[in-house]
Here is the input.
Amino acid sequence: MKISASFPFAPLTKLCALVAALAGIGWSPTVEADYHVIPLPLEMKLSDEAPFELTPRTSISYPADNAPMQRNAEFLSEYIAQATGYALQTLPADKAPKKGIVLALDPAITQPEGYRMEVNSGGVKLSGSTPQGVFHALQPLRKSIPATATDTHILLPAVTIEDAPRFAYRGMHLDVCRHFFPIEFVKRYIDLLALHQMNTFHWHLTDDQGWRIESKRFPRLNEISSMRQRTVVGKAHSGEYDEPPYGGYYTQEQLRDVVEYAAQRYITVIPEVDLPGHMLAALAAYPELGCTGGPYEVCPDWGIFPDVLCIGNEQTFAFLEGVMDEVMDIFPSHYIHIGGDEAPRTRWHDCPKCQARIRTEHLQSDGKHSAEDRLQTYCMARVERYLNEHGRDIIGWDEILEGDVAPNATIMSWRGMQGGIKAARLGHDVIMTPTSYCYLDYYQSEDRDKEPLAIGGFVPVEKVYSLEPVPTELTSEEARHILGAQCNLWTEYIATTEHVEYMVLPRMAALSEVQWMQPEAKDYDSFLQRLPRLAEFYRRDGDNYAKHVLVEEK
Ligand code: ACM
Ligand code: ZN
Here is the structure.
């Protein structure tokens, strides 16, 4: 950190008197801001003009009677307080002094998430065409200030920054089923998304090992499905189990609170109810929804299990529609993620009800797909239709391309890029999240003995950084279907919040440059040089980040 005095050229003879006078008026040392943050802004024009000096007396103004812009001002005041220890006054523009930080709306800025930041000795102006754009301007400004600049004045060099994200979908995922994390931590995770200028939180809320959404309609989901009676020890299928019951669920009030918390930070929460596989927790409570009728156990192990929802049973759809009614009521997101991954067909093959459905719906095998594959399509399309009728669209994992794709589905391509390529060519929107770049449950070092137990794989920071979400095989027309990219954190082997942090930080920083920056501007060496300043924020905020690429810290 560069520390200098505000008045470095005072003649020596007068220095003592000056220092005494300055001490009397609360003189502080200054530090200089550095706009080379993560993700790096698109265009930055530094000038030789005098900088702006941010002091405890600097005010932040917002357009009068604009609540979201007022909240932006309050966020900025809070962010600056976290670094400096002093909170800046926020006030409407008509009451603000001329010199200071001004938050403004400017309809001429074309991208809704784009912003402009102008700094000169007279002040700082952060503009966007929407409050969301202005929120994105707050992030580089706060990251340009050293994370711990306690009681210092900040010299903000004169600059004009014009910036906008490359992708409209910039996501992070968190599985709270295999391990369950407190609501306060979920909020902290959302704070991390905001810091990294992401806009979507994909919340994986139901799976074999636990159902985490309170249901008023199906109370056994809370009584039974939210708790597993035992949990496998060590690797999956080790045969050894911990006995204490494990689980929990979020109340609807808590879920709504998270949605609101995220919305204030311009982050959309997309809930995932994974179907028709990964449903053992629900089946344990409602065994009549499975092909065999059970009994079933909230799953104590990790993996893929043959017992899935029975597609031949109308009760299954009454259940799914009832669940979706509650989910839509809690989550206003345009997209609802309905999973579709890893649903074995074995039970359907042997189930009279499922086979009857295959006959009545005339589902047929061809050389590529079995009738049971088409049964999955039938299920996904039926749930999709229900959600479409309520104004929502679905996201599904790339398995939903097997058979016929549900008509309006957005595909999350996880088993590589191929699913995404196929979907884009079929005219479907795509989110890229291929395992080999985006699975943060994979090891981040080859020195596995020094790492906590992980599911396998190897995704170092540099690999995440190297992701190019738009495959060169696509035409420019097809490429428009690539909405963005996301990293996923599955938590079979991640039981604590500290471990979650260790797995996502700083790989999430690498992802943020993939999501935000234009590909030609990305540079891994430059990223590594800028990372220590961001890591100061992680450290200050008590996050347990991995240090593999932060050489001097190892
Ligand atoms: C997945 O990782 N099963 C989508
Ligand atoms: Zn069945």
